[in-house]
Every structure is written in structure tokens, then in C-alpha cells.
Amino acid sequence: MSRVTTLSIRNSKVVEGMSPLVAVTAYDYTFAKLVDDLVDIVLVGDSVGMVVQGHSNTLSVRLEDMIYHSRCVSKGLQKAHLVVDMPFMSYQVNIEDALKNAGRLLSEGEAHAVKIEGGVAVAKTITKMVEVGIPVMGHIGLTPQSVHALGGYRVQGKTASARESIIQDAIALEDAGVYAMVLEGIPVELAKAITERVKVPTIGIGAGPNCDGQILVLQDFLGLNTDFHPKFVKRFAQLAEETRKAVGAYASEVRQKNFPEREHSFHVDS
Questions:
Q1: Would the pTM of this model clear 0.90, i.e. be above it?
Q2: Co-location of 138 and 156 in the same domain
Q3: Is 131:178 a contact under the CB 8 Å cutoff?
């Protein structure tokens, strides 16, 4: 089983007949091991703040949280490429801090690359990271760490000026040296235009079918997160319902003293 690398991801853009890249989020060893041979990229997203920690946004996630979850996910992967989000304010203050924090995510978190939100504003930081050997995946469009500045989780790029700004962000990311970029929450037509213009793969989430790959939060498309169902998420399973059914059956058998039975117990003669 050969490992998916930054090079193979970048090259997928120019390989004729190459299938779109498949990416999912994961935050622990169990899920990482389950998805490893089925996907190309596993992202330890700062969405952990909402999915695992119960926050209303990603802004409370700390660098130490990302290191911990990245290390857990790393233990479950043998094939998939591991990317980890740089959390809010871990790269925005200055380039020196950004390099140090990204280095920790690779060394302590055992990630293969980091993901940074923003375009033109963070291009210099990305350039420096790439120069010192830190692979960077970009992220433009709807950038969750800017949720308050954006006025909420709203589709971006609806006006001509907004579309042009996002295109300039994409160009800046490519020039800075990213090996791929996430396009989130933008119109299909804009995602298509960016995908055709840049030479690195685009990975869409709420950006339509014309990107070079797709990513979704695992808990969302497994139907585990029943409180969150945006338009761009397709439910491929209803595991919340199945989980509650299983827990209910377990609770019922315990209360009725039907579990554990002999086959689930240890005896002197067995």
C-alpha cells in the first residue's frame, strides 16, 4: 500500500483520467483506521471544535488540541495523506510564530502538511513555510476562522468584486507554493473558473462538482451530527439513528438482566 504524498496529490492535476481526490476529516485513531484505505486525504480539521468539543465555531481550538488529535489520527493511517489545520491565531500574528507552530504540527502532531485559511493576506507566510520545507494546503472562499468578519457562514463570491477577490486569493496561493487548495462555500461557476486557472488541485466543500476533489466532515455525511445539515452535505448513512438503537438495545438488556449472558462471561471451567 503506497502512501499518498504531497507530490502525488499535486501531480494528480495533470494525470489524464485521474479520479477526483477524496478527502474526509477525522479526529481519532478509530475513524482514521476505518477510512485509511478508502480515501486519499485525511484532514484533522479545526472543525474538531464544533464536532468533538461542542463549540459553536472553530475559534476556541488551541494548537495543543490540533497536535493531540493529529497524533491520534496519525496512528491509524498507513496510506492516506494527513493534513492538519493551523488553528485561529497560530499563524496570523507573525511569520516566526507561524513557522514554529507549523513545525510543531509536523513534528509533534506527525502530520504530513498543514492547512491555512486565507489568500493574499497569508501568501508571504506560506511562501516562507514552503521555503523551509513545510508543505501547505490553502483554503479560500468561506473561511470559518473569519466567521465573524464574514457575518456568519455565508456563501462567498456572489458579486463580481467578491469573485475577483477570491480568484486573486487562489493565484496568490499558487504563487506562494501550496500543493493544493480547498475551495469552500462558493458558487459552482467560480469554483470551476479557479480550478481551470490554477495548476494545483482544488478540493471542494460546498463548491460544486468541478473541483479536482471533494472533502466533507465525516460525522456530517455519516449522519452522526443531526443538528447540522447544510445544503452541500449528502447523508450517506444515518448512524445517529443506528447508534441510538444499539445503545437502547444494550440498556434494555442490562436493565432486564439479559446481558451479560454466559457467552460474555468468564468461568472457572472455561
A1: yes
A2: yes
A3: no
